[in-house]
Amino acid sequence: MFFSKSFIATAALCLSLSLQAHAHAAIAPALGVKGTPVRNDVQRPSKNSECGNVNIAQNIDTSTAVQAAANGTFAATITNFNGGVDGSRQVTALVDPTGTGKSFVSADVLQNGDKNPSGTGSQQLVVQLPQIAQCSGGATKDKCLVSFTTAGGFGNCVVVQQAASSGSGNKANATAASVTAASATTAAASATTAAATTASAAKAAQTSSQAAQGGAGNLTAAEKAELEKLLKELESKLGIREERAWVSA
Ligand SMILES: *[C@@H]1O[C@H](CO)[C@@H](O)[C@H](O)[C@H]1NC(C)=O
Ligand SMILES: *[C@@H]1O[C@H](CO)[C@@H](O)[C@H](O)[C@H]1NC(C)=O
Ligand SMILES: CC(=O)N[C@H]1CO[C@H](CO)[C@@H](O)[C@@H]1O
């Protein structure tokens, strides 16, 4: 009633900042991070920025790389900084065999972490690089970039190195046929990325305009509950009370 538009917009901003501060998990060794990643190193991978804010070209050659086994699997360690789905240790993985951050394809996670851990801790993740994904990135031309995203929407990239000598499977399979398949996949992936970028920009604009107008319709139940809690806190500080139609309980 009183100043609901700016009030909700401010509250939504506070909410997103508070979620950022509380919900984190990092996968080591992290792209662009020396040593064990800490809470502040956690990124929010997104469709047009799968490694978050980390500069890929500047970091791919200086970051610790995980060695892939001859069968194309590799392991990484996920550590969460708070419990619950927001601090989820369950991930999905994307691989960019070119190491540029521009042509990701999905990869199977053979061993995953807990989706809804009760506390903090570390677990091992095991990922299978796709057969066509012979790593060719970085100065050594044998590095892949792997982007991990947790069920809570956090994560980061990891550099994976695939030794040429491990190539009995993947490398030897880089025949004309699989090279053709790989470039077709890459082209398809870039087309998808371009489309997704436009779509997500439109969605972001729509979402923020809805938030600014006081529309909370696109928030999940948990987000609504969190927003409501935050609003009540602000209201009690300001000594006001406002009716919100979207509050279910
Ligand atoms: C791949 O190789 C690793 C290391 O040798 C081994 O531990 C793992 O079981 C293998 N995985 C598969 C799916 O063959
Ligand atoms: C290439 O990959 C296929 C499918 O995984 C496999 O059956 C075949 O043995 C591989 N070829 C070589 C030369 O390793
Ligand atoms: C993805 C999604 O749920 N979009 C909805 C957001 O809210 C508007 C208005 O409430 C709906 O029209 C969208 O379908």
Structural key phrases:
249 residues, alpha+beta, eight-stranded mixed beta sheet, 4 helices, 20% strand, elongated, binds 2-acetamido-2-deoxy-beta-D-glucopyranose, coiled coil
Instruction: Give the H and E element order.
Output: HEHEEEEEEEHH
Mean pLDDT: 76
The biggest beta sheet, please?
8 strands, mixed
Report the uncertain regions.
12-21, 166-188, 191-195, 204-213
Strand content: 15-25%
Radius of gyration: 21 Å
Q: Percent of residues in helical segments?
A: 25-40%
For the termini, the CA-CA separation is 20 Å
Number of strands: 8
- Total of DSSP H or I helical runs spanning 4+ residues: 4
Keywords: Coiled coil, Signal
InterPro entries: Egh16-like
Coiled coil: 217-244
Signal peptide: 1-23
Secondary structure elements and pairings:
Elements: H1 4-22, E1 25-28, H2 56-59, E2 65-67, E3 73-80, E4 91-96, E5 105-111, E6 121-128, E7 143-150, E8 155-161, H3 176-212, H4 221-238
Helix pairs in contact: 1-4
What's this model, at a glance?
InterPro entries: Egh16-like (IPR021476). It contains four helices and eight strands; from the N terminus they run αβαβββββββαα.
Task: Report what the structure shows.
- Residues 217-244 form a coiled coil.
- Keywords: Coiled coil, Signal.
- It is built from four helices and eight strands, in the order H-E-H-E-E-E-E-E-E-E-H-H.
- It is elongated and about 65 Å long.
- Residues 12-21, 166-188, 191-195 and 204-213 have low confidence and may be disordered.
- The longest helix has 37 residues, at 176-212.
- The chain has one domain.
- It has helices at 4-22, 56-59, 176-212, 221-238, and strands spanning 25-28, 65-67, 73-80, 91-96, 105-111, 121-128, 143-150, 155-161.
- Helix 1 (4-22) packs across helix 4 (221-238).
- It has an eight-stranded mixed beta sheet.
- One 2-acetamido-2-deoxy-beta-D-glucopyranose is lined by residues 131, 168-169, 172-173.
